[in-house]
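FAQ

Q: What does a record look like?
A: Structure on top, sequence underneath. For example:
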């Protein structure tokens, strides 16, 4: 017997309405027993937007908080490493190893949460097709007969 509630069809009016409501509510908040630092919040918000609001469980939210903290730590350590230099004399700076460990942790957490690239944008061959279309569109920019959107620089 199936215990999870039946999901709405993604191409239905009800699904569109639910998506609009979820978007209006903004990102989910972490569970009360989870603490995020100020530097974690941009990563938390990005992670929350990687999946539909109604697919997050409390356990997922705790894992997402770990991912947000990990990504913030990586960013902070990259800054420290840039300031100190990647090499200390003849040896690689020890922070480089910490960044590598945290990067591997982030990849694993993304897989667990299904917020990695294949889960969010699709298979790589599909992304390659879209990239090829973008490349072709960039090459066509000089053709006055094809209407395009232009970025305004300024």
């Amino acid at each position: 017997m199936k215990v999870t509630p039946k999901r709405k069809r993604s191409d239905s009016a009800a699904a569109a309405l639910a998506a609009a409501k979820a978007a209006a509510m903004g990102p989910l908040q972490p569970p009360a027993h989870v603490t995020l630092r100020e530097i974690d919040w941009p990563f938390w918000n990005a992670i929350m937007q990687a999946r539909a609001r109604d697919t997050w469980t409390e356990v997922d939210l705790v894992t997402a908080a770990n991912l947000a903290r990990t990504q913030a730590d990586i960013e902070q350590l990259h800054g420290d490493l840039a300031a100190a230099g990647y090499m200390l004399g003849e040896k690689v700076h020890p922070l480089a190893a910490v960044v590598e460990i945290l990067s591997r942790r982030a990849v694993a957490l993304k897989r667990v949460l299904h917020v990695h690239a294949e889960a969010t944008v699709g298979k790589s061959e599909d992304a390659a097709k879209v990239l090829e279309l973008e490349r072709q569109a960039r090459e066509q920019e000089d053709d006055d007969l094809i209407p395009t959107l232009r970025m305004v620089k300024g």
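Q: Is there anything notable about this one?
A: The mean pLDDT is 83.
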